[in-house]
């Protein structure tokens, strides 16, 4: 996890040299976790998760648009800290994701008044889990999608509510990969540095 956080901050420094940067933190509401069963004839296992937190950084490039709309395109990444499955077995099963994504951000031109924006996101996520979760099996990342709606307050400070879907897999030897899907809603607080 230390390596991932180090990479995150290196990316933040590089991003700051290239364009506008969004940085911030978020609170993730308890989410929904679905994992294929080890046995193909059984239904996928659906469990809830505990709440979580995250850090994020994004680089934005403003594209020329009309006098009333602002259209940004960018890349970003976030680090979702471990969250625990709500399981009865008594074994702590923790997992996390690190999505790397592209996004579009559309909203009115910045002004002294609060402005709203919409942000669809699409990318790839790295999937990680503890030993109790993966049982010595290898993990695979997968598709990340998200949709955020935000409000720019003053001096670049913004809040955003985002729906996110992360996918991954657990590779079982001599069997197919067990698909994993995690969905949640995040409340983000950040600042845009120009």
What is the tally of beta strands?
Answer: 12
Order of helices and strands: HEEEEEEEEHEEEE
What would you call the quaternary organization?
single chain
The parts where pLDDT drops under 50 for at least 5 residues are none
Structural class: mainly beta
CATH architecture: Beta Barrel
Explain how this protein is built.
- This protein is mainly beta and about 190 residues long.
- It has one domain (about 1-194): Lipocalin (Beta Barrel).
- Helix content is about 10%, strand content about 60%.
- The chain contains 2 helices and 12 strands, in the order αββββββββαββββ.
- It has helices at about 1-20, 130-135, and strands at about 20-30, 30-35, 45-50, 50-65, 70-80, 85, 95-110, 115-130, 140, 140-150, 155-170, 175-194.
- Strands 1-4-5-7-8-10-11-12 form an 8-stranded antiparallel barrel.
- The longest helix is centred in the first third of the chain and has 17 residues, at about 1-20.
- It is elongated.
- The two termini are about 30 Å apart.
- The mean pLDDT is about 85.
